[in-house]
Specification:
CATH topology of the largest domain: Elongation Factor Tu (Ef-tu), domain 3
Low-confidence stretches: none
Helix content: 10-25%
Shape: globular
Order of helices and strands: EEEEEHEEEEEEHEH
Strand order of the largest sheet: 1-2-5-4-3-6
Radius of gyration: 17 Å
CATH class of the largest domain: Mainly Beta
Strand content: 35-45%
CATH architecture of the largest domain: Beta Barrel
Distance between the termini: 33 Å
Number of helices: 3
Structural class: mainly beta
Mean pLDDT: 94
Length: 191
Amino acid sequence: MFTGIVEEMGRVRARLDGGRFEIDAEVVLDDFGVGESVAHNGCCLTVVEMGERWYAVEAVAETLLRTNLGDLRPGDRLNLERPVRLDHRLGGHLVQGHVDAVGQVVTPAPDLRVRMPLHLARYVVDKGSIAVDGCSLTVVAAEDDTFTVAVIPHTAEVTTLGRRGVGDRVNLEVDVLAKYVERLMDKRGPT
């Protein structure tokens, strides 16, 4: 479980056969080890190896197909966040690290507008929460197949969102509470 508050932008050090990535990082390496989970552009992956100021993760084929991680090349930046700790503030919203779909940037930050698959539109509401590349954001406007979020200058500077241009692919995770409510409502029976 994550908060959507990005701790740092890492850099892809190497991309090896299959879905193995080596990531240069500093902040997320503190109090950290093999077997730990880290969100990479909002996608939860397990650390399988560590070195000095870098670590490695492996993504299966399904993950590479359903996220923008398959687009990553050496030198690319990505948003990193360690899991939430119960003794810390929850600064964003509950983010699982399970990417729902990949969207496409229509208008770059600061008024970031993203086209999303139609099946996600029912979960995106004005003033609701959404994670874009792992960043917890508040929806300004939700439309049929797009939504807009306001990216403040600080967020644009310390995350990849300030570097995203028209046509770039971004990972989307809608609010999990909306999905659970929908599922519960679908399964209502006599009371």
